[in-house]
Amino acid sequence: MSSLACPCGHVIKDVVWPLTYDSGVILCDTDEEHYFSKTAEALAELVAATVQGKRLEWMHKYLPHMQDPEYMSKPDAEIIENYMGNFSFYIRVIEQCEKCGRLHVQKKPGENLYCSFKPDGEWQSVLKDIGSQE
Length: 134
Ligand SMILES: [Zn+2]
Prior knowledge:
This protein is of the alpha+beta class. It contains 4 helices and 6 strands.
């Protein structure tokens, strides 16, 4: 999505950083178990590969598109974050119109088709991150 037209007439754009609207992602119950088990399995293999000095083999298996030698020395957290990005096909995007509060939920991961839901009551900050509410 680079822009999404809301039925209220407002256009939500995600090309400006920091984002001026609220957004998030949804992981459906039916995909959750598969997502977490695949991730846990791969991370357990990363730990074992690192202990055995076979981190490069792990990278070839799980991140074949990241074969730059410089990348091999990146911090573990960055490598794990890139690995977890491989599962974006499980995740649906959710955007909130900053003008009317409608939630726009991506119908299928990776597709630019959305369903809209209009709030019944208070809607401000419903998608604010937890860190910003502390
Ligand atoms: Zn709207």
